[in-house]
Amino acid sequence: MPSLELCLTLPEDSGIYFLLAQDHPLIAHSLTMAMPVIDPEARPAIFVDHKTSFTVTNLYAREVNEDRLALFLQSRGESPILGCSTTFWEPAEHSQFRRKEDGGLRLHTITFATTKKVLHIRMPGLELEPAAPRPTMEALKQLVVLNNDLFVVGVHIDHAAVGLFLDACEMQVSNFIDMHSLNNKGDRRALSAYQWLLGGKAALHTPAINAIFGELSHDEMVDLDREVARSALRAWACCIAATHGLAGVLTNAARIDTTALALNVIH
Amino acid sequence: MRLISKIHRDAASLDWRKPKSVKNDIANDWKLTSAKVGTDEYELLLVTSNRFATRLRKGSVDEPDGQIIHVEDENGQITEGKLSSFIYMQSHLVPIAGVVLKTEGKVAKIRLPKGSQFSSIASISTVGKDSLTWSERHKEKFLVLALEKKLKITTLKSFRAIWFPSVRATARPRAIPEGAISKPLNNSQKQAVLAVLREPLARDVDVQIIVGPPGSGVWIAVTLRLTSHNLHSFSGKTSVIGASVQAITAISTSEKPRFVWLAAQSNVAVKNIARK
After folding, report:
1. Pairwise CA distance, residues A237 & B244, whole Å
2. Domain boundaries, chain B
3. Structural domain includes residue A211
4. Is the CB of A88 less than 8 angstroms away from the CB of B149?
5. pLDDT tens column, B130-140
6. In whole angstroms, what separates CA B131 from the centre of its chain?
7. How many whole angstroms separate alpha carbon B276 and alpha carbon B274?
8. Which of B65, B136, B156, B160 is the best substitution to test chain A (most A C-beta atoms within 10 A)?
9. Of B45, B127, B29, nearest to B86 (Cα)?
10. With 90 as the cut, is the pLDDT of residue B77 above it?
């Protein structure tokens, strides 16, 4: 099955992204998924020294298999670094998809990025009955999240680790690295912290960083499509920053390794 | 892992559900004046919040995710503009550029574009999610440390006392000192006070969580009389917190002094409890 591509455009006032569908045999499918791929001419400039240039593949969780992941991982070349970002959503108050045990918030998408490609994986949601079995994504486990040859880096990557555990059949991870832990100072959500982690103000187009990593305003917060578009840029930016500025410190960085945490044991 | 995930998700859910709009109760004595800093000219709106809990918070023209402010005005005479924080005419949805430059307690100085004029403000609403509290920030950091195995969270005594009360060793019960509390407690209040007074085993930590609906006398409207020292006398109902503090004070001696550490989510809450 071919990868699915849409394009992402940047409006004049920056920071707000709209999705434009390109001709594609699976366009209806893509619109349902509402995820972006990138029009090379329309991407926001994030780094001064690196053009925002990558392609995006969108997959449902059930579509994740070894071949597709291998194709994605090829694009990293010799680099062991993947960027990662997530989006979450919460079903409506009386929705059948709402769960009592965790307030209903759940993982919507998890995004992985190399310096050349971005892979969006959409978690099961409205298209599956709440009681229906969830795809276990064994290939994702073996090739990506439990692959200790890789460093999966991101900001707030703890949300990704917990999201996979709670919303993807208790999937565990062993190689996630929280970029904030590499600079354990100050407010983890401050824009200045993101700027530092991504290489410093001088290396960045800060309005784009603010738009991609900052909190969304009132009206934008309910727009999941926009959040998924931002997720692609976040994952890719983290990959670029880690590859070019943090590669030396990743080897000794603390990993989030949920396989080392007992599932249900009181020590 | 299940426990850490549960705590993590609960925190994320709470953050997700933070109100996106808070109505700020503003006093009628607002003032609009012209201001000039160098060549920068603007109008300065000075408002006082009636309630500390819903006071306006400082914004920044450099932070694009600053909170948005809506102004409700029957006349709808506010001009249009745009900055990181905004003031809207709620009835007409005509935004004017405004940012909270400075706050001093309940007083906020809001910058408006030069020429902004209006005759009345019915109310102001802050739109946008509030930032994390210190407590929430620390919880976030601790959970990451736990996931990175830098912190063995389940071995912390206080953590275990809260999350695994069933594995806590039985502590020695202690009676409420006779005459320490002026008004009688009901049965559930008495149970709660006894639990607070319970002597923990050596090197153990004992945490009691007392929960009750409004009006059940957990902490408000304290009536206590320090019979041993006669320092305070209040009128009203009995509360568990008040009775516990009273009882702890009563059993304190110079040889074995007892202390009460009071922590709350805000300075105002601490002050309210201390007063009672």
Report:
1. 54
2. 1-18+130-155, 19-127, 168-275
3. yes
4. no
5. 667 777 888 88
6. 13
7. 5
8. B65
9. B127
10. no
Total domains in the fold of chain A: 1
Task: Compute the distance between CA of residue A36 and CA of residue A22 in angstroms, rounded to an integer.
Answer: 10
Whether residue A63 is contained in a domain is answered as yes
Q: What is the pLDDT of residues A173-187, one digit of tens each?
A: 999 999 988 876 666
DSSP assignment string, A178-215: EGGGGG--S-TT-HHHHHHHTT-GGGB-HHHHHHHHSP
Nearest CA distance, B137 vs chain A (angstrom): 7
* Helix, strand, coil shares, percent, chain B, to 5: 25, 20, 55
In a domain, A267, yes or no: no
CA–CA dist A195, A214 (Å, integer): 11
Residue indicated by tokens 């997700």: B16
| Residue B9: both structure tokens together | 């998700």
Amino acid symbol at B171: A
pLDDT band of B238, cuts 50, 70, 90: low
- Closest of A109, A59, A63, A113 to residue A226, by C-alpha: A109
Nearest CB neighbour to A162, from listed B9, B20, B155: B9
Q: Give B166 to chain A, closest Cα distance, Å.
A: 12
By DSSP bridging, strand A55-60 and strand A117-122 are parallel
On whether the pTM is more than 0.80, the answer is no
Q: Pick from A100, A122, A137, A118: which is nearest to A55 by CA? A: A118
Reported ipTM: 0.79
What CATH number is attached to the domain comprising A137? 3.30.420.10
- Residue A240 structural domain: 6-258
Decide if A189 and B167 are in contact by the 8 Å CB cutoff: no
Mean pLDDT check: name the lowest of A83-87, A145-149, A170-174, B208-212.
B208-212
- A16 or B146: which leads in pLDDT: B146
In this predicted structure, what is the pLDDT of residue A99?
64
CB-CB neighbors (< 8 A) of B128 in chain A: 215, 217-218
Nearest CA in chain A to B164: A266
**DSSP-derived secondary structure letter, A113:** E
